[in-house]
Write a structure and sequence with these properties.
Blueprint: H1 44-48, E1 63-70, H2 74-87, E2 92-94, E3 110-112, H3 120-127, H4 129-149, E4 162-165, H5 172-184, E5 191-194, H6 195-202, E6 210-214, E7 217-219, H7 222-235, E8 239-241, E9 248-252, E10 255-260, E11 263-272, E12 290-300, H8 305-311, E13 318-321, E14 328-331, E15 337-342, H9 353-366, E16 375-386, E17 392-394, E18 402-406, H10 412-427, H11 437-440, H12 458-477
Parallel strand pairs: 1-2, 1-11, 2-8, 4-13, 11-18
Antiparallel strand pairs: 3-7, 4-6, 5-6, 9-10, 10-11, 12-15, 12-16, 13-14, 14-15, 17-18
Helix pairs in contact: 2-7, 2-10, 3-4, 4-10
């Protein structure tokens, strides 16, 4: 049940099977390219989504297009959808491997009403009150966009909100402060729950010392959502080409020449939507602008009624905890438990079974009744974390028709739909000036590396990440 999925698409026959097997040690800071027709990771989402829909097959000859989108995940496909729906532009989507091969089919399926890694109180501290209020309005609008675009996609939605559980008593004051800010400043109906209420009315997470509950939050089946986006984009006239990695990129006289194994795609505009799988060699505008971070996830066998009762699962809402190296988890529609958290530092280390065991131990600590339960699916994937913890949907150089939407930091399931919409507006020349920094500034370089633009510096980034993870672990579990 946990083997790579590389089956061809439907009987139309225009979608290719995987050319190469799944590479569990892939690392975007080490690999020259993200691959060429690689098989899907062995995720629950791919294993239970059904046969992948038809696509348009690999690029086989030189073509001219108005808009090329690099990356066929949630962002790339939603951008293609909105370009067609709202601007009458039929985009061409280029994917290195299988459709939605990257983070879009490796995440936890949690659609939360936020974007990036910062809380609302941190928006105020960084940007000031006016901008923070605009950001809140933007993510609330984004949630409505997400609900609308997914309304006709059978992605097993689990609505009801988001439960943000304090994993220790010392975390409660910060949650209480955040809830007050949400209610009083942003008029967002967050409420604080004590430990007894959480365990009695929601779930008996043995670590829970209380929780913040916010009204918006939806769990989804990531594979079915990705495949639904693919069907919708193609129905609107977009072309989606898997096994078509961009191996070279030149711009001459305002035209972008994207070299793929099957031919050159000549595009008037290019949108980059490659997430945590962004190659440092893709284009100078995205080089060293992200720190890809691994996240592990696993899914149990279906729980029995007795096990559900023992854990007192009374909600299917999406749940996270207050660790810096946070856990995200929920009871799925088929009564399996999905749980995820941070993983190894490098791709080479990712297949080490100890990281899976760490997560199993975390599951047992939260839910002792599940000790020894069979794990049916286990995988990991790369998260696109920006160096200032906030995404960018931007045209980085007004003289070049290049756009990117990157840096969600693990909160892209919901916001990627809005990001696709916002990027489509910019491509079509219809974007309004909101004054929000996520739309009018580039992804920053890391402060200590502003002068370093070589891939050779990647090991030093990873060394710093190791020290940070150790510090975060101490803050999460000891202090």
């Amino acid at each position: 049940m946990n083997k790579p999925v590389d089956t061809p698409s439907d009987v139309l026959g225009n979608s290719t099977a995987a050319r190469t097997s799944y590479d569990p040690a892939y690392d975007p800071l080490v690999a020259q390219r993200p691959g060429h027709g690689n098989a899907y990771a062995p995720t629950y989402w791919i294993g239970t989504a059904g046969e992948p829909p038809a696509d348009d097959g690999p690029i086989t000859h030189d073509i001219d297009v108005d808009v090329a989108i690099i990356g066929s995940g949630f962002t790339g496909l939603s951008c293609a959808i909105f370009l067609a729906q709202e601007h009458g532009i039929k985009a061409t989507v280029l994917e290195a491997n299988r459709v939605s091969w990257g983070c879009s089919t490796r995440n936890g399926g949690q659609a939360q009403c936020t974007t990036g890694r910062l809380k609302r109180s941190q928006w105020i501290d960084r940007y000031g009150m006016d901008t923070a209020l605009k950001l809140h309005a933007e993510v609330c609008d984004a949630m409505q966009t997400f609900k609308k675009i997914t309304a006709d996609i059978d992605c097993e939605p689990q609505p009801g909100g988001h439960l943000y559980i304090a994993h220790k008593a010392k975390a409660m004051p910060a949650l209480e402060k955040e809830a007050k800010i949400m209610r009083e400043i942003f008029k967002y109906d967050a409420r604080i729950l004590d430990a007894d209420t959480v365990k009695r009315e929601f779930v008996d997470d043995k670590e829970a010392a209380g929780a913040l509950h916010e009204p918006e939050g939806i769990g989804i089946h990531a594979g079915k959502l990705a495949f639904g986006y693919l069907r919708k984009a193609r129905a609107l006239g977009a072309k989606v080409h898997p096994s078509s990695p961009v191996m070279g990129w030149e711009t001459r006289n305002g035209v972008h020449y994207l070299q793929t194994p099957g031919g050159v795609v000549r595009a008037r505009s290019v949108a980059v939507a490659t997430g945590g799988y962004t190659s440092p060699h893709l284009h100078p505008q995205v080089k060293n602008r992200l720190l890809p971070i691994l996240s592990n996830s696993l899914v149990t066998r279906p729980l029995t009624p007795a096990e559900i009762e023992a854990c007192n699962f009374r909600t299917h809402q999406v749940i996270t905890d207050t660790r810096i190296l946070r856990h995200y988890y929920r009871l799925m529609p088929d009564n399996r438990v999905q749980i995820g958290s941070r993983s190894a530092i490098t791709g080479a280390d990712a297949p080490d079974d100890k990281y899976k065991q760490f997560l199993i131990n975390d599951l047992h600590r939260k839910f002792p009744a599940l000790t020894g339960i069979a794990i049916d699916y286990s995988w990991w994937g790369w998260v696109d974390v920006s160096h200032d913890m906030m995404p960018r949907i931007v045209q980085p150089d007004p003289k070049q028709s290049i756009f990117y939407s990157l840096g969600y930091g693990g909160n892209g399931v919901m916001y990627s739909a809005q990001a696709g919409r916002r990027m489509a507006e910019r491509i079509a020349g219809k974007a309004s000036d909101t004054g929000l920094p996520i739309f009018n500034s580039k992804l920053p370089y890391p402060n200590m590396m502003e002068l370093v633009e070589s891939q050779a510096f990647a090991p030093f980034r990873r060394l710093g990440q190791r020290f940070l993870y150790r510090w975060y672990h101490l803050k999460d579990e000891v202090f």
